[in-house]
Amino acid sequence: GQPAELVKLQQQYVTLEPALDAQEGERVTVDETAIEAARVKLLGNVTGDLGVNAGTTGTATVDGAGSAWTNSGDLIVGDSGTGTLTIRNGGTVSNVAGYLGSLAGSTGTVTVDGAGSSWTSSSTLFVGRSGTGTLTIRNGGNVSNAGFGYLGFTAGTTGSATVDGAGSTWTNSSTLIAGVSGTGTLTIKNGGKVSN
User: Fold this and answer.
1) Beta-sheet strand order (sheet of 169-172)
2) pTM over 0.85
């Protein structure tokens, strides 16, 4: 079967099993923590954390219009391990600060794919903070952050972002810096747009 997904929910680590077949609005209990969702279709929590510990892998997919993952705190994709987040077909994700590849040795990958698909950070977005981060925005997907945008934040890190296709956008309300102390690469192609 599919691997379990590990999400930090209100400071507790919760294993989300994709095999659970609940209907939206039903109560699903996982590791003694109740989550109301349809396959965790609508997931709300404080801090989202994919790939928490070294050697672990955390994967999340937000798929389809009306599907949303709302974090009232930060979202970490690749904390000390490997994290992968896919937002597609009109799915949405929101959080305060966003981290791809947060700590040394980590890898974080986020793909925002398709018109109506969006990732919104109300603060800073790090692509490769102390690890390796990769951000792909394509086919009309949208990413926005209210704080700084960083690609390759600390020495020895790598951060890369690709904005590909008409309608694909990355909007920074503040400054976007590629290569702060690490290596940062920004690719804009096929009508994609980046603004800051």
Assistant:
1) 42-45, 68-71, 92-95, 118-121, 142-145, 169-172, 193-195
2) no
